[in-house]
Specification:
single chain; mainly alpha; flat; membrane; transmembrane helix
Amino acid sequence: MVVFPPCFYFYFFVLLALHPSRLLYHHFLIAVNFG
């Protein structure tokens, strides 16, 4: 698993809060798995 800086997590959670989408989260998991 790739370790991201805290600012990335902050940005991701803000983006998820503004646009709650399962598809977005699914693509995030794919990016983590293949990253």
